[in-house]
Write a structure and sequence with these properties.
A hairpin with a 2-residue loop joins strand 6 and strand 7. About 4% of the residues have low confidence. This protein has 19 helices and eight strands. Helix 16 packs across helix 19 and helix 18 runs antiparallel to helix 19. It has 485 residues and is α/β, with parallel strands linked by helices.
Length: 485
């Protein structure tokens, strides 16, 4: 259906009740579920008329088969050992309403989306001037077009009025295979469109950025060898789907591989600093001054190599905060947000820094901003854990409990949130729940010691006056779940 629609050969009809895929929402779909073969049926005759007009109006485009594209005017630069973020072109959105005002809206959506996507950190987006030539007519050969543009991914979109709403449908296509990797539909009331257009653009951009990041990690994980440093960095980040010892070791080893591949690549050092800092936070056997000094050196080298890369600054700032240096992390975190207000790493680092400096209201602002930029990310549960920490500091215990519950629902093995529920339940006097959460934590991480959990909680609640009480709740629940207790 996607290929037929792209080639202008799609005339859909419904022959039995069903949930229609998004593609069939984009154009008029004739309702023929009732039809029994009567040639005089009014709906059937109207459908034949529609097909006749469609055939007279449009000549089907002849699909091309991997023809060599014309010589590109965009210089093709072979990536080096460092590699680079994936590239994307936003194709002109088609106006399915046929109204002049919707044509203006469709053009504006593309421009606004390119601007919003350029504020992220996971994509290199080319300008609309490079894709303007594809505004009219069918686009049968995506691979050839993508090679002309020098991009890996294409974003197609449509605008259509549905009753009193306007519907924007976007889909991410892998150019080489033509596979549709992601499709989403966004509806807004027409009367509120002017006020909500910015939110709509940010929602589309955030979903797309997060999806490309997920696809790139999966691509890197499947690649057996000949990795670029960018791909090794993606593999390192993918290891954080669970903060367990084996995954932390994988995150560190892949980041070290990125450094070996490209010794002057700032992102490689930033990923290494971030991965090692989480090892420092979670595993006491690495809790020594020499290891902390190494982490700081990696973070500072990353910043020195790429001082204007928001992704590098965000990861490096997080690493500095994770080893107890929030003041050193403040400047790169602020700079990361300034460079990429639509990117998640800067907001995440800024939130952690604010929290460690006991600025919990500002921390909540940045955590919420970060989560809006990465819907569906595998790391959302970690962000919710930090949000719960901020709510504890703010004395909003019931909200903290709900936030940790949400994190656990997203990742049932998220011991970082499960153990925090132990603390919240202890404070609220819900001792049976606290004991149950402690048992769950110990079952998932049987090798973790009480001292390790004390270390982690002390870090999460540095400078928090309520820390002694939290440690008391932890120790009580631990003792109550000891074998034979």
């Amino acid at each position: 259906a996607t290929l037929a629609d792209r080639n202008k050969t799609l005339v859909p009809c419904t022959i039995e009740p069903c949930d229609r895929p998004i593609m069939f929402e984009l154009t008029q779909t004739a309702e023929l579920s009732h039809w029994t073969g009567d040639a005089g049926d009014k709906v059937w005759k109207a459908f034949l008329g529609d097909v006749g007009r469609f055939v007279a109006k449009e000549k089907p485009a002849v699909p091309q088969t991997r023809a060599e594209p014309p010589q590109s005017s965009v210089p093709q630069v072979a990536p080096g050992k460092a590699g680079e973020p994936p590239s994307l072109a936003v194709l002109p959105f088609s106006n399915r309403s046929g109204l002049a005002e919707d044509e203006v809206f469709a053009l504006g959506m593309v421009e606004d989306l390119i601007e919003a996507l350029s504020q992220g950190v996971n994509l290199r987006v080319i300008s609309s001037s490079a894709t303007a030539r594809f505004r009219d007519g069918a686009i049968p050969n995506l691979d050839g077009m993508a090679r002309q543009l020098g991009v890996r991914y294409l974003l197609e979109g449509n605008v259509r009025r549905v009753g009193e709403s306007v519907r924007v449908t976007a889909q991410l296509v892998e150019a080489e295979s033509g596979a549709v990797l992601w499709t989403q539909r966004f509806d807004r009331p027409l009367v509120e469109l002017a006020a909500l257009q910015e939110d709509l653009v940010m929602e589309v951009a955030a979903g797309l950025d997060a999806q490309v990041n997920r696809v790139e990690m999966e691509r890197a994980l499947k690649k057996p060898d000949d990795l670029t440093a960018w791909e090794a960095a993606m593999r390192s980040n993918a290891a954080f789907h669970q903060v367990f010892e084996v995954n932390l070791a994988k995150a560190v080893s892949e980041a070290r591989r990125a450094v070996q591949i490209a010794p002057d690549y700032g992102l490689a050092y930033a990923c290494l600093a971030q991965a090692e800092s989480i090892v420092h936070m979670f595993l006491l056997e690495e809790d020594d001054p020499g290891f902390q000094g190494s982490i700081r050196a990696h973070a500072e080298k990353a910043i020195a190599l790429e001082p204007n890369n928001a992704l590098v600054l965000g990861y490096a700032a997080s690493a500095l905060a994770n080893i107890g240096l929030p003041h050193a992390a403040l400047h790169p975190a602020v700079r990361a947000v300034q460079l990429s207000p639509g990117g998640s790493p800067g907001h995440y680092a800024r939130a952690v820094v604010c929290l460690l400096l006991n600025q919990y209201d500002e921390a909540l602002v940045h955590i919420d901003a970060e989560m809006r930029t990465m819907p569906g990310s595998h790391r959302i549960y970690l962000s919710l854990g930090w949000k719960g920490n901020a709510l504890i500091r703010a004395g909003r215990w019931d909200e903290a409990r709900a936030t940790f519950d949400q994190a656990i629902a997203l990742n049932p093995s998220a011991t970082t949130s499960i153990v925090k529920n132990v603390l919240v339940c202890g404070h609220l006097g819900q001792l049976e729940d606290a004991r149950a959460f402690m048992q769950q934590t110990r079952a998932i991480e049987p090798a973790a010691t009480l001292r390790q959990w004390e270390h982690r909680i002390s870090y999460w609640h540095t400078a928090n006056p309520i820390l002694p009480e939290l440690l008391t709740h932890l120790r009580s629940a631990w003792a109550a779940t000891e074998p034979g207790a």
